[in-house]
Write a structure and sequence with these properties.
about 130 residues, alpha+beta, 5-stranded antiparallel β-sheet, 4 helices, 7 strands, globular
Length: about 130
């Protein structure tokens, strides 16, 4: 994993719309689609699609080695409902603000749902920070 390349690639999507089920750099991403694209950019994930819970299940036995760029933050209460990637020890980049009713760029704009930087603890339901890299 190349931290600078990953950071630069992740931040190149800032402002792109959140689209439920999205996994497209042009049209938009949801949280798992965005994180999978970042993992794929470094060769850490194949073509398979997955949810935030599925990504958590794959990496749950890999405790965090660094609170730096590339660690994954997982959020939820009874199950994992959101995933984001750390940019440093205190900030994440996420596809956030939307949900199942965010189907178009117009929906995303109305809901203020987009790729954005937030503090790691901006949500009260942080479950784990895991390290997906070998």
């Amino acid at each position: 994993m190349n931290p600078k390349l990953l950071y630069d690639y992740a931040t190149s999507f800032l402002g792109k719309p959140y689209i439920w089920g999205g996994d497209n750099p042009v049209e938009g991403f949801d949280c798992s689609g965005f994180c999978l694209e970042l993992l794929r950019s470094q060769g850490a994930w194949g073509k398979a699609d997955d949810t935030a819970q599925g990504i958590y299940n794959r990496f749950k036995d890999k405790p965090v080695k660094s609170l730096g760029v590339g660690a994954l933050a997982f959020y939820g209460k009874t199950r994992i409902t959101h995933v984001a990637m750390l940019l440093d020890g205190e900030h994440i980049i996420e596809a956030g603000g939307g949900g199942s009713r965010t189907q178009t760029a117009d929906d995303a704009a109305a809901q203020d749902a987009f790729i954005r930087i937030r503090p790691l603890n901006h949500r009260s339901d942080l479950v784990a920070v895991l390290w997906p890299w070998v």
